[in-house]
Design a protein that fits this description.
Layout lengths: L14 H4 L6 H16 L4 H7 L6 H12 L4 H6 L7 H13 L2 H24 L2 H14 L1 H7 L2 H29 L5 H10 L5 H22 L4 H9 L5 H7 L2 H6 L4 H8 L4 H13 L2 H56 L1
Helix pairs in contact: 2-7, 3-4, 6-7, 8-10, 8-18, 12-13, 12-18, 16-17, 17-18
């Protein structure tokens, strides 16, 4: 049974770089938790699937159940539903079937998605205060002009115009940027390389991806998947293409005789702490446990960075509000002076 620190990471808005449908993490956690519980109670596979009632996954569950009834393995049935299930999930389920540890694998995946859901909630909750300030600023600062002119339509259009940059930035960040990064084009790789160089955010993205890579690799290895296939599965959870290119060097290095610790160091994707933990894990036969500790190490760093970002965002919001108030005040008084001069 895994004992993970609370939280993990906020996934891309279009999960797994647009290969997956947007599925609620809590629904995924509930799916694997309930499925594992039913199997552990001795319920047949198809009957367990038919009892699961999860709205966002219902169509996929029905399709998987139909395929299993027709003779397909559970992992192959999941593979046919790529928009709802990732390579990691398919690989872990496949090894769970082969090793007879399907219940344990379901519990691991349930914990995986619980971790995702917690961090997503934390991240979104940290945004409400800056967003509130940004929305209140144009509403309040426009009131003097509304009182003096009595033109509500002017007040409304001015408020919406002041909020436009905020909404355009939001749309670009959560929809425009992911669409530009779609696939593995040279443009997408260059954008991901630039993202890693942004102060605070770039380091946070790197820690986030390394954390998810370490945890996915530990899940895969613990499920009995051989190292090279485990690395391939773990790489699929890394959404930054620049970092992914570095991590791709690990598998060839291991084939040439390097240890996982040395291969990770040579890739240039990580620092000495990771090499030390993996060296201890390989020498003591506790590689999975050390990968889990590595995940926790990177995640703690990521959470610390997010807390710093959370402190910076209100400051940025206050600066923007101050600039907006200044512009509104100048406009208000200049219009009044112009009116007085015309009298």
């Amino acid at each position: 049974m895994w004992t993970l620190s609370e939280g993990a990471w906020l996934d891309d808005t279009l999960s797994q770089r647009y290969r997956l449908a947007v599925i609620n993490y809590r629904d995924k956690a509930r799916f694997y938790n309930e499925f594992g519980t039913l199997l552990d109670a001795g319920m047949p596979l198809t009957q367990s699937l038919s009892l699961l009632k999860i709205t966002s996954l219902q169509e996929s569950i029905a399709d998987i159940n139909t395929r299993v009834i027709r003779g397909s393995s559970l992992s192959n049935a999941i593979l046919k539903n790529k928009r709802s299930f990732s390579v990691l999930e398919q690989g872990v389920i496949a090894m769970g079937e082969e090793a007879g540890k399907l219940v344990a694998c379901c519990k691991n995946l349930a914990h995986w998605f619980e971790v995702l859901a917690k961090l997503k909630a934390e991240f979104l909750s940290s945004l409400w205060y800056p967003a509130l300030i940004i929305h209140l600023a144009p509403i309040i600062t426009g009131l003097p002009a509304l009182v003096s002119s009595g033109c509500f339509s002017c007040y409304l259009s001015g408020t919406l115009l002041a909020l436009a940059p905020f909404y355009l930035s939001f749309i670009f960040l959560f929809w425009g940027l992911p669409l530009l990064r779609k696939g593995e084009s040279p443009l997408a790789k260059q954008m991901d390389k630039l993202l890693l160089k942004i102060p605070l955010f770039g380091v946070a993205i790197q820690k986030l991806n390394l954390s998810r890579f370490a945890l996915a690799l530990s899940y895969a290895i613990d499920s009995g998947i051989e190292i090279h296939r485990s690395l391939k599965i773990a790489l699929d959870t890394v959404t930054n293409l620049s970092l992914q290119e570095k991590l791709k060097q690990i598998s060839p290095a291991i084939r040439s005789g390097e240890s996982l610790a040395n291969a990770l160091r040579q890739s240039g994707a990580s620092e000495g702490v990771a090499e030390g933990l993996l060296t201890v894990g390989e020498s003591s036969g506790k590689q999975v446990a050390m990968l889990q500790k590595l995940h926790e190490y990177y995640f703690d760093d990521f959470r610390t960075l997010m807390m710093r970002v959370g402190k910076v965002l209100p400051t940025i919001a206050f600066v923007l509000v101050a600039l907006l108030v200044g512009v509104q005040t100048v406009n208000f008084h200049s219009s009044r002076l112009q009116t007085l001069s015309e009298m």
